[in-house]
């Protein structure tokens, strides 16, 4: 997995890991983190209780992030799937992990949300371009007020 990660992530790339980075051993996690390329951010997952001990390997560790990937696109990042998330009613995307691909059918019809766990992506990290392509095919979020108002005005 380290080779797959480093094969697509450059030393200066930014990576958001959406939790469950390591199972039990912080020593093994530290060995792995030392070898991984990129500036890493971590959303705490259900198995990450000891990860804050390794904070020096991350730019930041939080429960969730709301980031701007462009002037018009925001993305909510969390380990867990949310039905409603920050800015979902204004077209934001929601990326999550935790479910190991078991929520893909639900996510594909529910709106702009996507399980980005590597275990359902051939063990490669997702690129922003790959995420954008998938989101282009997803329906509007059920509570997307801005876009619904625009459609009614046309």
What does this protein look like?
It is built from five helices and seven strands. It is of the alpha/beta class and 154 residues long. The strands form two sheets. The protein has a four-stranded mixed β-sheet. 23% of the residues are buried.
Series of H and E elements: HEHEEEEEHEHH
As a percent range, the share of strand residues is: 15-25%
**Counting H and I runs of at least 4 residues, what is the number of helices?**
5
The largest β sheet comes out as: 4 strands, mixed
**Given the helix and strand composition, which structural class is it?**
alpha/beta
Distance separating the two termini: 49 Å
Roughly how many Å is the radius of gyration? 16 Å
CATH class: Alpha Beta
Record the strand order, biggest sheet: 4-5-6-7
CATH homologous superfamily title: Metallo-dependent phosphatases
Residue-averaged pLDDT: 90
The CATH topology label is Purple Acid Phosphatase, chain A, domain 2
- Oligomeric status: single chain
Total domain modules: 1
CATH architecture: 4-Layer Sandwich
Structure described in brief:
By secondary structure, this protein is an alpha/beta fold. The protein has helices at residues 2-8, 26-35, 104-110, 128-137, 145-153, and strands at 14-17, 39-43, 60-62, 64-68, 74-78, 93-96, 113-115.
């Amino acid at each position: 997995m380290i080779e797959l990660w480093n094969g697509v992530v450059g030393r200066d790339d930014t990576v958001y890991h959406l939790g469950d980075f390591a199972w039990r051993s912080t020593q093994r996690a530290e060995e792995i983190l030392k070898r991984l390329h990129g500036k890493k951010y971590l959303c705490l997952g259900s198995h990450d209780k000891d990860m804050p001990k390794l904070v020096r390997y991350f730019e930041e560790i939080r429960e969730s992030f709301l980031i701007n990937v462009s002037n018009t696109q925001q993305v909510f990042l969390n380990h867990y799937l949310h039905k409603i998330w920050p800015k979902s009613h204004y077209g934001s995307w929601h990326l999550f992990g935790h479910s190991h691909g078991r929520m893909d059918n639900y996510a594909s019809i529910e709106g702009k949300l996507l399980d980005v766990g590597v275990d359902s992506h051939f063990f490669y990290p997702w690129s922003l371009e790959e995420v954008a392509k998938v989101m282009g095919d997803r329906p509007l979020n059920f509570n997307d007020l801005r876009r619904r108002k625009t459609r009614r005005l046309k």
